[in-house]
Specification:
The structure is a single chain. With 256 residues, the protein is an alpha/beta fold. It has a single domain, classed as Spore Coat Polysaccharide Biosynthesis Protein SpsA, Chain A, CATH 3.90.550. It contains nine helices and 13 strands. It has helices at 50-53, 56-65, 97-103, 122-129, 132-145, 150-158, 172-190, 205-220, 240-253; strands spanning 3-9, 21-25, 38-39, 70-75, 78-80, 88-89, 92-93, 109-112, 115-116, 161-162, 168-171, 227-230, 232-234. A seven-stranded mixed beta sheet has the order 3-2-1-4-11-8-12, sandwiched between helices. A two-stranded antiparallel sheet has the order 5-13. The protein is globular and about 45 Å long. 34% of the residues are buried. The mean pLDDT is 94.
Length: 256
């Protein structure tokens, strides 16, 4: 099978030396991030929403403009990890196209291994880190548009584990199903939430929502899909201690 993973980036960086990884440029820079990169501002696109939709402008572009049999989405700093691959970025091993294609022989979709927040639910984490009114509007929109998913939403939000980053590798036809479910929800909320008055971080509200919604959709599909959860490597490293301290501050002291 032909597998292409699009690597979302807003700037020049080190990208995998493989024709199966294609840099996908988002943002407003006029300088190309790589000589073989493509842009989310071509074809059918929502590139102008990138400050609030984050990598979802790239996801939308993949949905509307790409016809590959199998597609994936990764980030310039985050990839599915491997302990044996010879493919590296800045010395960090990442899962090769061959490895991922082999995994898809026994799985329908590859997604990020869930993060466990342990001391707090996904709902509590969201409303402590972001705007509670956004959470309320999100649930209301699911009731309005996708009432069959409300129980899945409450289950995921009441738990402590979540797959992050909106990363995936699967057949294009499958992720098309998800995007056809996701974007009508987000486009409706984009008209209802006063996000233009948020700071730059909180303005990324629809990207944050989509991380939760991907888990909701997957939970609803759990009886028909085989999901393979993959470890994720951060090419620049990640300070888990600082993340943990931030979680405690938000949960116990209400610091956003």
């Amino acid at each position: 099978m032909k597998l292409i993973t699009y690597v979302v980036s807003h700037k020049e960086y080190s990208f995998p030396e493989s024709k199966h990884f294609v840099p996908l440029q988002v943002g407003t820079s006029v300088t190309s991030i790589a000589k073989d990169s493509v842009r989310d501002s071509t074809g059918d696109n929502i590139a102008h929403l990138n400050p609030s939709f984050c990598e979802l402008t790239a996801a939308y572009w993949i949905w509307k403009n790409i016809q590959e049999e199998v597609v994936g989405l990764a980030h310039y700093r985050r990839y599915f990890a491997s302990s044996t691959s010879n493919l590296t970025v800045k010395g960090k091993r990442i899962a090769s196209p061959e490895e991922m294609a082999d995994m898809l022989k026994s799985a329908d979709i590859l997604v990020a291994k869930p993060r466990n927040y342990f001391i707090t639910s996904i709902k509590s984490h969201y409303i402590h880190a972001h705007h509670e009114s956004d959470y309320t509007q999100l649930r209301d929109e699911i009731i309005l548009q996708q009432p069959d998913y409300v129980a899945d939403f409450d289950h995921v939000m009441g738990g402590t584990k979540i797959s992050l980053y909106n990363m995936f590798v699967c057949k294009k036809s499958l992720i098309d199903e998800y995007f056809a479910w996701l974007f009508p929800l987000l486009f409706a909320l984009e008209q209802k939430i006063d996000y233009q008055n948020y700071d730059a971080y909180q303005k990324r509200v629809f990207g944050f929502m989509a991380e939760r919604l991907f888990n909701v959709w997957l939970h609803h599909q759990r009886d028909r899909l085989t999901i393979k959860y993959m470890p994720v490597v951060n090419i620049d490293g990640e300070n888990l201690l600082l993340k943990g301290i931030g979680l405690l501050k938000r949960h116990f002291w209400g610091t956003k």
